Amino acid sequence: MPEIYFLEPTVRFDDQLEYVSGMEMEIALCPLNEGQPSQHAMRQRWRRPLKIVAPVQRMTDFEWTVYRDIIIEEDIVDSLKSADFSGVKFQGVELFTTTKTPLGRRAFELTAVGWGGMARADSGIHVVKECPFCKRRVYSGFKDPERLFSSEEWDGSDFFVIWPMPKYVFITRKVVDYMLKSGYSGVLVKPINKFPKSIAVGYSPGHLDDWFDGQKLAAIKRQFGSYLSDD
Ligand SMILES: [Zn+2]
Questions:
Q1: Domain annotation covers residue 170
Q2: How far is the CA of 76 from the centre of ligand 1 (A)?
Q3: Which residues of 55-93 are buried (b: 16+ CB within 10 A; e: fewer)?
Q4: How many domains does the chain contain in total?
Q5: What are the residues whose beta carbon lies below 5 Å from ligand 1 (ion)?
Q6: Is residue 8 in a domain?
Q7: What is the mean pLDDT of residues 203-224?
């Protein structure tokens, strides 16, 4: 079994970055329970590029939004690209002052697009609720973090997500070595057995379509058939 780690901010929550107010979400509501408070989204994704309120200069090499987005500048993107890791994507973001003036500082969102599979059932994570219409699922929390990862469902990427925790970036030992050598500030690598218990009751990750696109989405859905698919 490969050693698995994840990225954590060292930036205090109060110092993490907020989105510009009025940033739009692509949203489609599930017709189930229409008009009721229990109505949920069938599709929910922030429009890209993300628009973020940020300082004029970066305070740390890795910056974080309060939604766990990882923001880095071009020098780090270039360095990560030259290390030739798989499963990682960089998309430009737009940075603004608190008065919505563009900063003109170029920065990118680091996203894990590799697939680390579903959390193993023996971790304790299980489906609590499933919408009969759009198959949106709510999952319980876990009991044993060491059992979250199974290499059988993993696509072998260096950066990847484990479902249902798509906001966490999991990494391989190869990335850990790179991170330690680079000594970036603002970020910490932790082994998966230190994975934090969810503060909420469990996880509501939405749909795979909110996180993955194109061929990757199709491949994950093929792997799981109707199990995770909503079509
Ligand atoms: Zn639904």
A1: yes
A2: 39
A3: eeebebebbbbeeebbbbbeebbeebeebebebbebeeb
A4: 1
A5: 30, 32, 131, 133-134, 136
A6: yes
A7: 88
